[in-house]
Amino acid sequence: MSKRALVCGAGGFIGAHLVKRLKQEGYWVRGVDLKFPEYCNSVANEFVIGDLRNPLFCSDVLNEKFDCIYQLAADMGGAGYIFTGDNDADLMTNSALINLNILSLVKQFGVGKIFYSSSACIYPEHNQLDPANPNCEESSAYPANPDSEYGWEKLFSERLYLSYAKNFGINVRIARFHNVFGPEGTWTGGKEKAPAAICRKVAQANSGSSIEIWGDGLQTRSFLYIDECLEGIQRLMDNDFAGPVNIGSDEMVSINELAELVISISGKALTLNNIPGPMGVRGRNSDNRLIKEKLKWAPSSMLADGMTQTYKWIEAQNQKK
Predict the structure, then answer these.
(1) Residue 291: inside a domain, yes or no?
(2) What angle do CA 249, 250, 251 make, to 5 degrees?
């Protein structure tokens, strides 16, 4: 009999790709989300539309013991959504309700393992002030001082999952994602992240013009291609280590450098116009020492390869509009 997996957030970017991966590995998959994937047809055996903030709906979809549950459902978006402060109450309430509902039912029905997707946004702002030397080692999360309410909720939920593991014997795995990107992700509308936003701006720009970059563009990040994110998730699920552990690339670039990379991929002659806008922390990069120690693996694909695939996909989407 096939192993049974539940993917919460299966209509989102990472969730939709994860469903494909699990199906390739022979799982029977139930996907759950408020919406179907926007840019592909889900290959889940069952796809249930509903609101995981609603405990009654949760009880309908978590009504049995699954071998694996992947909890990726959250209220989230890019810098324009997270760092303005306009969405803080929704960000915290919506995601916390989902996690509380899911864990209460997992306690009742049991689960082989449950994966929780946390975020690099949990790391203290004071460790990320120097764009050249950010500290995102897992142990540096405390004393806590995330740069956003999104980060605070993620950190709370990490502790929630670990508390359920300690008190009720639930087998949890926790990863802190670092800026996952790739084809079939949100690329317009205000919730897109930097790689997709820059790809869109370049795809829509005429050669000889400029594209806008929020801030001075010297803020640094690392970006993880979707295929490596999925590999990291499955390696963590197959390991005895609970986490939290970073799943991210350690190839750090400035936002201006990322933009210049996309421009070079496009072949257009474009310049950068740095304007005021939300930026988040000044520097962030995945510290991969712990994942190498515990999983004997770390992401290694080059940013340029993933950005080439992503730009081509967004360029094609833009041409359809």
Answers:
(1) no
(2) 90
Looking at the structure, do residues 214 and 235 belong to the same domain, yes or no?
A: no
Residues 201-224: b if buried by 16+ CB within 10 A, e if exposed:
bbbebeeeeebebbbebebbbbbb
From the list 81, 116, 150, 161, the catalytic residue is 150
Q: What is the pLDDT of residues 256-305, one digit of tens each?
A: 999 999 999 999 999 999 998 877 789 999 999 999 999 999 999 999 99
Residues 23 and 91 in one domain: yes
pLDDT at 278: 78
> 88: burial class by Cβ within 10 Å (0-12, 13-18, 19+)?
middle
φ and ψ at 70, to 5 degrees? Answer: -115, 110
Answer yes or no: do 95 and 227 share one domain.
yes
Structural domain for 144, as ranges = 4-180+223-247
142 is catalytic: no
Residues in contact with 79: Cβ distance below 8 Å, sequence separation at least 6, in sequence order: 193, 194, 214, 277, 278, 279, 280
Q: Is the pTM of this model over 0.70?
A: yes
